[in-house]
Design goal:
Length: 201
């Protein structure tokens, strides 16, 4: 998505205003209720965006992949609102961090940036519709398999290093429910289980 964005005059502006930084997996990029000071564009790695309920339970909304940014952070920064989500580095990442005020200014100055934001908005809206449909209509095993397939695609491997608790947090399940469902899926030969690793068949 970002190739066309950076093949323009905006390219120089982006790198002149921003800074490239490395983040380790597990780092919190954006906290719930925090003010947004910089907008991340993912160059390498990935970020997961989650919603947190009043009891502290997480629900995975979507992943941010290379060439993408966080539309919710952009909107919150533009209106000086606090974040409604939590963004966590999923795998070691290299991010281009753009000052929030610059991201707002570019909407008026660069049509390419505005197009980039609208493309992100559409993509995230479709992802959130998928989350709503999944939570409302799909069974636990379908949701779990869908998440595992997402992770396999993200990491380009059918061997996924993840704990049952991590899966439970992302789906809003209990760890016991995830473990029980995974064991049933293993019996159905959909996957194999080992310590902190799941291999899809």
């Amino acid at each position: 998505m970002y190739e066309n964005l950076f093949q323009s005059l905006l390219n120089k502006e982006v790198y002149a205003s921003g800074s490239v930084k490395q983040f380790a997996a597990g780092s919190v990029m954006v906290n719930l209720h925090s003010y947004i000071k910089s907008i991340p564009i993912v160059l390498k790695g990935s970020i997961k965006v989650v919603q947190i309920d009043e009891d502290g339970r997480e629900l995975l909304l979507y992943y941010i992949k290379p060439g993408e940014s966080c539309i919710m952070s952009i909107l919150a920064a533009r209106h000086n609102h606090t974040s409604k989500i939590k963004a966590i580095i999923e795998e070691d990442a290299e991010l281009l961090l753009i000052p929030a005020n610059k991201a707002s200014e570019w909407i008026k100055e660069f049509p390419e940036w505005t197009d980039f934001i609208f493309d992100l908005y559409q993509k995230r809206f479709e992802a959130l519709l998928d989350v709503v449909n999944t939570v409302a209509f799909q069974k636990a095993d379908v949701r779990l398999l869908q998440l595992l397939n997402q992770k396999a695609s993200l990491f380009h491997s059918k061997e996924i290093v993840v704990t049952h608790q991590q899966l439970a947090d992302e789906l809003g399940f209990t760890r016991e429910a995830v473990s029980r469902t995974l064991k049933q899926m293993e019996k159905e030969k959909l996957l194999t289980l080992s310590r902190n690793k799941i291999s899809l068949m």
